[in-house]
Amino acid sequence: MKNVTDSFVFLGHWPSAGSFGFNTDILATNLINLSVVLGVLIFFGKGVLSDLLDNRKQRILNTIRNSEELRGKAIEQLEKARGRLTKVEMDADQFRVNGYSEIEREKLNLINSTYKTLEQFENYKNETIQFEQQKAINQIRQRVFQQALQGALGTLNSCLNNELHLRTINANIGMFGAMNEISD
């Protein structure tokens, strides 16, 4: 232990160099020592370096192989997706064509239905008009009849005596009852 301590102390007593430059003394530069160290490193480090390079080469090859597999799978999935896209586009075209024909069919059905509804409304309108005309005619007949009856009764009342008057009233009531039965 003392030798190690002495060597450090000995290093501390070296005088510092005064200038910077090249040392051309072969022994002083330890060229032989460096070549021995390099030879030992090459001899013993050759296996380690070779192993490191082989491992790196295997990792690169594995990465390339995995990339090729992934590329193949991606190409396969792309082809499947293209096939599905083509099928979907064909289905969409078919739906579009069917949709247009369905729209035209529905349009014609709607037009026909509208015409039928309009015809029904026209028929209902005509029936309502005929009903209202008949009703108005019947009301006018009843008013004319009532006015004629009142006028006749007025004339009869002024011209008839009580007995004749009662017989005429009874006859008119009978005729009026018969007319109501006919009109109903």
Task: Describe it.
- Helices cover about 90% and strands about 0% of the residues.
- It is built from four helices and no strands.
- The protein is rod-shaped, with a radius of gyration of 64 Å.
- The model is unreliable at about 5-15 (pLDDT under 50).
Beta-strand share of residues: under 5%
Mean pLDDT: 81
- Distance between the amino and carboxyl termini: 149 Å
Poorly predicted sequence stretches spanning 5 or more consecutive residues: 7-15
Helical/strand content category: mainly alpha
What's the number of helices? 4
> How are helices and strands ordered from N to C?
HHHH
Strand tally, please? 0
Largest sheet: none
**Helix content percent band:** over 70%
Brief digest:
By secondary structure, the chain is an all-alpha fold.
Ordered list of secondary-structure elements with their pairings:
Elements: H1 2-12, H2 26-29, H3 31-159, H4 162-183
Q: Any key phrases for this structure?
A:
rod-shaped; 4 helices; membrane; single chain; mainly alpha; ATP synthase subunit b, chloroplastic; 0% strand; 184 residues; CF(0); proton-transporting ATP synthase activity, rotational mechanism; plastid
